[in-house]
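One such shown below:

_____
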Amino acid sequence: MQTLLIILLVLFIISRLLRYLMPYVLKRIQRKMEERMQTYTDRAANRQAQTNTQEGETVVMSKPKKNTEAKTDEMGDYVDFEEVD
């Protein structure tokens, strides 16, 4: 009986502590995320400022085309292996 009361008392104390501490913890986490987002947007703005394009100009960057044909002459021979005990 006494053990049950101690457990309940500890849980009650922990719940009260969390109720008052969690807003501070969440605010700190939020501030850190805001700082990270600010640095990311600053970096993106710096990259955009470094390019020579004007605002409103559209730039299309294409990927290089991959050669879809396999060069069988350069591939070599296929060798089938068997396991030997």
